[in-house]
Design a protein that fits this description.
Number of domains: 1
Helix content: 25-40%
Distance between the termini: 35 Å
Radius of gyration: 20 Å
Number of strands: 13
CATH class: Alpha Beta
CATH architecture: Alpha-Beta Barrel
Length: 400
């Protein structure tokens, strides 16, 4: 019997459709301070430099200052109703840091202390790789988005694996695996095998990134014939290593509906563990690029401009696969309401990047707290019991 048939029936009272009293606004001094710092300082700083500065500061607080434990006590989610059991692990929260936040596997424990339930490091390649030439990152302040053409800057699989091996806590950490820039499409399978060989032993799960728009030709690997070959090669490598590591695909938002269906069907056929949806988009619909920003026409956009399409892709994947695949939704999740909507639409896990940049270090805690409030108001026993409940409810009569 499929996992889809094991989800308990969910009544409308669990969907958060009842009219609730609006929550009283809470003045949070640290939130206000971060917003002031962002608007007065960080937004005037190069986006890439600001990201590096923030990651080093948090790594310093967690490492040399040894304040990571204090951060964790204050910020980690403590509501057992948010716990998610998936991919052979228990996640403290469904909210994770998406690939790209910790490209080099250098501050994942700091991110966990801020309240993320898991971190997906990378993208990691077999050998160390530099970023694409500057300029390569910019903020889209009006749209609350980011546009980047970084590529996959990372220290290589062996060094990333050493860093992962040194972790001390229970944080779930996955590795996003990509094709090296210099590797031709025909050599992709061997290239992914090399990276998996270096990373798998110290990764809680693996994500095969076949959709970044910033590595030429990478998105071609989303064709089902090439995907089948790639998954077979990775599985052969894991078997040779005598390892069982959950394996997922990360797909892009610019696929057609038919292509999304084909990938979902292939994932079910091959019994993959899940799909991460979606990567950044090449679409510029609704986005205003200023004068002199022509270089950004080739980069991928994340954040609010991706919100609608990411939800559409999630809904399509869930309609196709139900709970037989772990669906990780990423793209445009900014509020607890957004996160709640994705869970009801079929996401077992959630990931964020851009909203964390705009929201600051207390943003994960805010999302977790909002989800806890919505869970209590719904009357459901756990957030996991609500995965896909909204998709089922769409075929039912509306409730007042």
């Amino acid at each position: 019997m499929s996992r889809r048939n094991h989800r308990p029936e969910v009544g409308s009272e669990w969907l958060g459709v009842r009219r609730l009293r609006p929550a009283r606004p809470i003045f949070r001094f640290p939130d206000v301070i971060y917003r002031l710092i962002f608007w007065l300082v960080l937004q005037r700083m190069d986006a890439e430099r600001a990201h590096a500065l923030a990651s080093r500061a948090l790594a310093f607080i967690h490492g040399p200052l040894r304040l990571g434990g204090c951060l964790g006590v204050a910020l980690r989610p403590r509501d057992p109703g948010l716990h998610i059991k998936a991919l052979g692990h228990t996640f403290r929260s469904p909210l994770g840091a998406a690939a790209g936040v910790d490209k080099c596997a250098s501050w994942f424990e700091s991110l966990g202390a801020l309240g993320f339930g898991f971190v997906e490091v990378g993208t990691i390649t077999g050998r160390p790789q530099e970023a694409n030439p500057r300029p390569r990152v910019a903020r889209l302040l009006r749209e609350r988005g980011l546009v980047n053409r970084l590529g996959f800057p990372n220290p290589g699989a062996e060094e990333a694996s050493r860093r992962l091996a040194r972790r001390t806590g229970a944080l779930v950490v996955g590795a996003n695996v990509g094709r090296s820039r210099e590797t031709a499409l025909g050599g992709a399978s061997d290239d992914y095998r090399r990276t998996v060989r270096g990373l798998a032993a110290n990764s809680d799960y693996l994500v095969l990134n076949v959709s970044s728009p910033n590595t030429p030709g990478l998105a071609a690997l989303q064709e089902v014939g090439l995907l089948r070959q790639l998954v077979g090669a990775v599985r052969a490598e894991l078997q040779a290593l005598d390892l069982v590591v959950p394996t997922l695909l990360k797909i892009g938002p610019d696929l057609s509906d038919t292509e999304i269906d084909d990938i979902a069907d292939l994932a079910l056929e091959l019994k993959l563990d899940g799909i991460v949806a979606t990567n950044t988009t090449l679409s510029r619909d609704g986005v205003t690029l200023g004068a002199g920003s022509g270089f950004l026409l080739s980069g991928g956009i994340s954040g609010r401009p991706l919100q609608r399409r990411a939800l559409e892709v999630l809904e399509r994947l869930y309609a196709r696969a139900g709970n037989d695949l772990v669906l990780v939704s990423v793209g445009g999740i900014e509020t607890a309401e957004d996160a709640w909507e994705r869970v009801l639409a079929g996401a077992t896990l959630l990931e964020a990047y851009t909203a964390f940049v705009y929201g600051g270090p207390l943003w994960p805690r805010s999302i977790n707290a909002g989800l806890s409030r919505k869970l209590r108001a719904s009357g459901a026993p756990s957030l996991q019991s609500l995965v896909g409940a909204g998709a089922s409810a769409r075929s039912r009569p509306a409730f007042a």
